[in-house]
């Protein structure tokens, strides 16, 4: 049989709507499929079929539901409950705790007043026999209304040791930053599947180990750091496997579902903690389920897109053929055709790839500006989102109720964001809700400092969480749209890594609340104001042809009017003004292969 000859070779790179090579002799061709990129193979084998749905609902959703239990349990385990000095020989005739404290515990005017506006009792000092004020000589008593014990109460991480929980959270945040960089890179080198199960192993083993070394703060912080390295990729890797075998429409559904299940897991966590009440039982109950995720080793495939990208074409073909069979599409291609197609596409990819890296993001002025602005927005989102979540330990009221409300509010936030980004646009949605978060955080600061009303405080913080969750969703979307195709993963990875590094500031910011409960809110309000200004100068991407090349990315946003809701022009359309149309024969042939109607 003669060599495959492509009649559209001269124009194939310009055909964006179809991306499919065809020829008159296609019916006789046995060694190749008329596909121009990997996504075209997915169209043939099914990109929204039974395999994708089973993976989403039977694997990714259960995995995502368990992840908040493993990664966020320390917020409860390190909680510092109300405490006061232990006094020997407590008078049994004084039955009221408040009356007893009036005799033995001095008032502390440096602490924020209670909900009744009255000063609180000291947590670290008591009256001695001669009525002088001394530090607690015999330890502390703890309020066990919400917990039987936490790590902080069991090991007296209060007063002079009150910074221990902050140090542990900081070590974990530092691990997040290192893990984002190292494991993110390894997932591109050794695969998504092994890295995902490595992150489960790291998180479960070192989280469990931390419960047995908690008496040694240095060892405890080391285990927190190592466990922290696993979190970012533990969430990203399984979703990435599924997203890489879906088309762009179903990809959005995948991300939406995983995020919603994550929120459900977050909202369920305080219920589990409330039921357990004792720190070791809480730790075991929220960590052990992570070990069940190893059962998915036999069910979760490696990403065929990744296998293709690193040249493991035979393995990629095997996975793709299994998908085709499960999706009832095996009759649309043969193993021989798939092997030939993968080999041809891999050769084309190798020829077209240039040397790029993080430095390329700063090689052009406009691209560099967009990179910096997006990274600033991404970092602020991480710090404020993490800060609001951690600050439930400082808020008035019941910690379990506060955490539940701040978790469940993410559901309407995401739905609102999905509606607005396609109507108002990405840019102004980001700006408006950064502004909203600024006002809500400033209001929270004023409320806790001047009004001291727990109900109004929780309402304002919930509004802030609603706003920052929405901006977080938008910044992820912008990261996928502003960078050019060949730098899309690099750009998003760079912004995510810098953001994770900045996340180290979250626990420190929350710790300032021990000096003045309004400080974290003022800081978050200031950060959101910076985010609002930065987001205003990012280009709008709604209904725009996304940049394919570095030159496209450097033109992206040029000519946009600042106050416009829509871009003034779509510069990348200039690259396709003379785009050729496919003949009716070629069009019908590709529709037969994909099973989809194609607009020419």
Task: Provide a descriptive summary of the structure in words.
- Its main location: membrane.
- It is found in: Membrane.
- This is Organic cation transporter 1.
- With 600 residues, the protein is mostly helical.
- Among the domains are: 83-143, no CATH class; 359-566, MFS general substrate transporter like domains (Growth Hormone, Chain: A), CATH 1.20.1250.20.
- Helix content is 59%, strand content 3%.
- It has a two-stranded antiparallel ribbon with strand order 1-6. A two-stranded antiparallel sheet has the order 2-3. A two-stranded antiparallel ribbon has the order 4-5.
- A hairpin with a 5-residue loop joins strand 4 and strand 5 (133-135).
- Helix 15 (365-390) packs across helix 20 (488-502) and helix 17 crosses helix 19.
- The chain is globular.
- 44% of the residues are buried.
- The model is unreliable at 1-29 and 568-587 (pLDDT under 50).
Question: Key terms for this structure?
Answer:
two-stranded antiparallel sheet, MFS_trans_sf, Growth Hormone, Chain: A, 24 helices, 600 residues, mainly alpha
Write the layout of secondary structure elements.
Elements: H1 38-45, H2 50-72, H3 74-77, E1 83-85, H4 97-104, E2 107-108, E3 120-121, E4 125-127, E5 133-135, E6 140-142, H5 151-154, H6 164-189, H7 192-210, H8 217-228, H9 231-243, H10 248-276, H11 279-287, H12 304-309, H13 313-326, H14 335-352, H15 365-390, H16 399-408, H17 410-421, H18 426-451, H19 454-482, H20 488-502, H21 505-511, H22 519-536, H23 550-555, H24 584-594
Antiparallel strand pairs: 1-6, 2-3, 4-5
């Amino acid at each position: 049989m003669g060599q495959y000859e492509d009649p559209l070779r001269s124009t194939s790179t310009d055909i964006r709507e179809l991306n499919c090579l065809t020829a008159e002799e296609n019916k006789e061709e046995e060694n190749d499929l008329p596909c121009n990129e990997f996504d075209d193979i997915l169209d043939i084998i099914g990109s929204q079929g039974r395999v994708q749905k089973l993976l989403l609902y039977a694997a990714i959703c259960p995995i995502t539901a368990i992840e908040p239990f493993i990664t966020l349990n320390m917020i409860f385990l390190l909680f510092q409950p109300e405490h006061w000095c232990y006094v020997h020989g407590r008078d049994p005739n004084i039955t009221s705790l408040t009356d007893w404290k009036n005799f033995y515990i001095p008032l502390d005017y440096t602490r924020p007043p209670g909900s009744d506006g009255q000063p609180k009792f000291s947590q670290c000092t008591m009256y001695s026999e001669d009525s002088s004020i001394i530090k607690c000589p015999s330890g502390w008593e703890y309020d066990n209304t919400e917990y039987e014990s936490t790590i902080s109460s069991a090991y007296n991480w209060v007063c002079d040791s009150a910074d221990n929980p902050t140090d542990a959270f900081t070590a974990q945040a530092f691990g997040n930053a290192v893990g984002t960089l190292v494991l993110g890179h390894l997932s591109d080198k050794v695969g998504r599947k092994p890295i995902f199960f490595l992150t489960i192993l790291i998180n479960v083993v070192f989280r469990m180990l931390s419960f047995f070394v908690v008496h040694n703060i240095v060892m405890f912080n080391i285990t927190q750091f190592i466990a922290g390295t696993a979190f970012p990729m533990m969430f990203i890797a399984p979703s990435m496997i599924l997203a890489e075998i879906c088309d762009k429409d179903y990809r959005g559904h995948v991300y939406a579902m995983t995020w919603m299940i994550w929120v459900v897991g977050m909202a369920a966590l305080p219920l589990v903690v409330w039921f357990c009440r004792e720190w070791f039982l809480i730790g075991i109950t929220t960590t052990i389920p992570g070990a069940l995720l190893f059962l998915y080793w036999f069910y979760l495939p490696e990403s065929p897109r990744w296998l293709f990208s690193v040249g493991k074409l035979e393995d990629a073909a095997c996975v793709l053929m299994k998908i085709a069979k499960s999706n009832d599409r095996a009759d649309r291609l043969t193993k021989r055709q798939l092997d030939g197609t993968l080999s041809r596409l891999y050769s084309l990819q190798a020829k077209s790839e240039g040397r790029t890296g993080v430095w390329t993001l700063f090689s052009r002025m406009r691209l560099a500006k967009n990179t910096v602005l997006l990274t600033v927005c991404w970092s602020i989102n991480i710090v404020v989102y993490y800060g609001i979540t951690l600050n439930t330990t400082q808020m008035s009221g019941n910690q379990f109720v506060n955490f539940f409300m701040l978790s469940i509010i993410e559901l309407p936030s995401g739905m609102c964001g999905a509606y607005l980004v396609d109507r108002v646009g990405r840019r102004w949605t980001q700006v408006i809700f950064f502004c909203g978060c600024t006002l809500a955080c400033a209001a929270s600061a004023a409320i806790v400092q001047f009004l001291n009303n727990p109900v109004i405080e929780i309402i304002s913080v919930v509004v802030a969480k609603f706003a920052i969750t929405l901006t977080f969703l938008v910044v992820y979307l912008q990261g996928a749209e502003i960078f050019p195709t060949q730098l899309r993963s690099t750009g998003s990875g760079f912004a995510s890594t810098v953001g994770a590094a900045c996340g180290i500031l979250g626990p420190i910011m929350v710790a300032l609340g021990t000096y003045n409960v309004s400080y974290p809110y003022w800081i978050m309000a200031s950060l959101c104001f910076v985010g609002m200004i930065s987001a205003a100068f990012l280009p709008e991407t709604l209904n725009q042809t996304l940049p394919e090349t570095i030159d496209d990315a450097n033109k992206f946003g040029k000519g946009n009017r600042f106050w416009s809701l829509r871009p003034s022009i779509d510069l990348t359309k200039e690259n396709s003004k003379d785009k050729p149309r496919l003949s009716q024969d070629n069009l019908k042939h590709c529709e037969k292969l994909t099973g989809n109607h194609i607009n020419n």
